[in-house]
Amino acid sequence: MSTVTLVSSDQDEITISREAASVSPTLKAMLEGPFVEKIGRIELPTIESRILQKVAEYLEYNLRYADADRDVEEVPEFEIPTEMALELLLAADYLNV
């Protein structure tokens, strides 16, 4: 499985699967386009590491449960801390997730 490294504004690196990164149309375009990000390292200078970590968790969660049959499989809630909600909303808007 291929991975992608997301780099936050404070230079923390978060590694996720390429499949999970592709849940975001923005990240997918960066990975498939003629950009330097094509190599699998994407710098996101406007997103702090604690927010980017939660975004990465959501991308993996979405990949895992997006097509789940909720009648057959129990899908856990994705927890969003209240104090992170606004920053997560801004990051989600930027990444189209």
From TrEMBL:
Record's GO cellular component terms: Cul3-RING ubiquitin ligase complex; elongin complex; nucleotide-excision repair factor 4 complex
Domain SKP1 component POZ as annotated: residue spans: 3-62
Major subcellular site: nucleus
Keywords: Nucleus
Compartment(s): Nucleus
SUPFAM superfamilies in the cross-refs: POZ domain
GO biological process, one term: response to UV
UniProt similarity note: Belongs to the SKP1 family.
Protein name: Elongin-C
Organism taxonomic ancestry: Eukaryota, Fungi, Dikarya, Ascomycota, Saccharomycotina
Primary gene name: TDEL0B01430
